[in-house]
Model the fold of this input.
Amino acid sequence: MALQESGEMYLETIYILSNKMPTVRAIDVADYMGYSKPSVSRAEGLLKKNGYITVDEDGFLSLTASGRQVAEQTYERHTLLAKFFVRLGVDQETALADACKIEHVISQSTFEAIKRHARSINL
Done:
C-alpha cells in the first residue's frame, strides 16, 4: 500500500517521539501534531492494518520494519531539505515548512541529486 502524506507524517512523528521518549502513545502523537485523539486513533488503525506500526496491550506504538523505513526516509528528506534551504538563505521557519511539504512529493532521483550536492558542499 502506498502511503499518503498524512500516513508518512504520522510515521515520522512516531519516529521522532520514539527517539525522545521511552514509549509513545496515540495521545503523544496527537499532542505533538496538534491533532485530535480520534483523528490519530483512526490513522493508528490504518497504519496498524497495513503493517506500518504495532500497538501493544498498553497502547504503546512501535514502528515495524517497513514503518521505520518510511519514517526514516521521510525524516531524512525533511532534515536535509530544511538544512539545504537554510544554506540557500531561507529563514529557518520557512525552510522547515517548505521541507515538510516537499518531503512527500519529491522524487527519489531528485532527492538523491540534492543529497549528492549537499555532500559536495559539506552540508
